[in-house]
């Protein structure tokens, strides 16, 4: 993020912060499904997730997702469907909730958390040299996911077009986005997000989403 990026202040409530973090998780789930089925995805949504993964020490909460909720629009729309009990793509939901389960397993694995932190520090150096969305950076993010999180008990099996999933850079792109989903899942937990709150505090989340517009 550059200093000139306008910051759109998020409502400073726990529910709003949890909603935005959870939107990041579901945006990752949405993008993984889109990539696996079509090979394409929204550039702004993609860049927001990659930059958030690389920014491990953001200057503010809003800076994590680039300063404006619209950067998380796809994820917010999925979350609105979840909270409003509307029809949501079941594959996207499965990816999203699997990311939350993976995050919980990662959180209690100190060695893996340290390993990921070391890897991300190294990848930040790559990003400064090549740019955040350069192939080398995406490959390294994908490798970081593959060599850490994919070893945990919960495995995310991505469904889609087999020829697309095996195409050049696609496995790396998918894994990089799954890693971004974990980054937002950890953020959600840090902001007080818990699975049971999705059921019992649905009203507070819905109100926060309405405020975010």
UniProtKB/TrEMBL annotation:
Its main location: cytoplasm. Gene3D superfamilies: HflD-like. It holds the Pfam family DUF489. It is found in: Cytoplasm; Cell membrane. Keywords: Cell membrane, Cytoplasm, Membrane. It is a peripheral membrane protein. GO terms for cellular component: cytoplasm; plasma membrane. It comes from the Bacteria. Belongs to the HflD family. PANTHER family: HIGH FREQUENCY LYSOGENIZATION PROTEIN HFLD. HAMAP family: HflD_protein (MF_00695). This is High frequency lysogenization protein HflD homolog.
């Amino acid at each position: 993020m550059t200093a000139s990026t306008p910051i759109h202040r998020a409502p400073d409530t726990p529910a709003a912060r949890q909603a935005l973090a959870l939107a990041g998780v579901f945006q990752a789930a949405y993008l993984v499904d889109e990539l696996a089925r079509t090979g394409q995805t929204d550039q702004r949504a993609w860049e927001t997730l990659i930059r958030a993964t690389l920014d491990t020490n953001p200057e503010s909460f809003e800076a994590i997702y680039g300063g404006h909720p619209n950067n998380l629009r796809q994820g917010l729309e999925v979350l609105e469907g979840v909270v409003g009990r509307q029809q949501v793509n079941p594959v996207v939901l499965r990816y999203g909730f699997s990311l939350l389960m993976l995050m919980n397993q990662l959180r209690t694995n100190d060695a893996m958390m340290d390993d990921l932190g070391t890897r991300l520090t190294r990848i930040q150096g790559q990003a400064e040299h090549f740019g955040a969305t350069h192939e080398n950076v995406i490959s390294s993010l994908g490798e970081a996911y593959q060599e850490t999180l994919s070893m945990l008990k919960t495995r995310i099996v991505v469904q889609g077009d087999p020829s697309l999933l095996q195409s050049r850079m696609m496995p790396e792109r998918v894994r990089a986005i799954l890693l971004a989903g974990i980054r937002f899942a950890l953020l959600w937990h840090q902001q007080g997000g818990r699975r049971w709150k999705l059921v019992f505090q649905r009203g507070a989340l819905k109100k926060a989403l309405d405020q975010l517009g």
